[in-house]
Structures are given as C-alpha cells and as structure tokens.
Amino acid sequence: MARVCQITGKKTITGNHVSHSNIKTRRKFYPNLQYKRFWLEEENRWIRLRVTPKGMKTINKLGLTEALRRAGNTGLVD
User: Fold this and answer.
1) Which of 20, 26, 47, 52 shows the smallest number of beta carbons within 10 Å?
2) How far apart are CA 59 and CA 40, in angstroms?
3) Are 36 and 53 in contact (CB under 8 A)?
4) What was the pLDDT predicted at 69?
C-alpha cells in the first residue's frame, strides 16, 4: 500500500543521510501516517482513512464532507 495521506496527498520524499564524516547516502522520509476512523454523518457510518496529523487538522477545520470533496477533486480518495 502506498504511503500517501488520503486528505493532503503527502507522500514519501527522498534525501540524504549525512554521516559525521559528511558521507552522503540516499534515504527516505516517510509521512507520519495514522489510521483514523471518522463518522460520516451523511451516510450514517464510520469510514477509515489513512491520514497525517495535518490531514486530521484539515478535517477538523473544514469538516469531513468538505475535506473528502476537496480530496476527491484531486484524486486522492478512492
């Protein structure tokens, strides 16, 4: 499964691990993804999303329906 936030679209990025002797090797930075259940009032059911803390803040600010609508426009939610 891809490590992508279903609300914000944050995903894995790459960079360098730099040692004390300044040797650089490639590494990955993973987003802080959490599985979280949200109550979807319109359908009267729980939905389970894989979101980052910023995605949770977005849902708290906009509301679940609006956040899903915006994420659906960008193709992040299936």
Assistant:
1) 20
2) 11
3) no
4) 93
The domain ranges of the chain are 13-73
DSSP-based helix, strand, coil % in the chain, nearest 5: 25, 35, 40
For 41-69, what is each residue's pLDDT tens digit?
A: 999 999 999 999 999 999 999 999 999 99
Sign of CA dihedral 55, 56, 58, 62: positive
Write out the H or E segment, with its range, that includes residue 56. helix 53-62
Report the DSSP beta bridge partners of residue 11: 4
Whether domain 13-73 has CATH 3.30.870.10: the reply is: no
Average pLDDT in the chain: 93
CA dihedral over 5, 60, 58, 78, signed as positive or negative:
positive
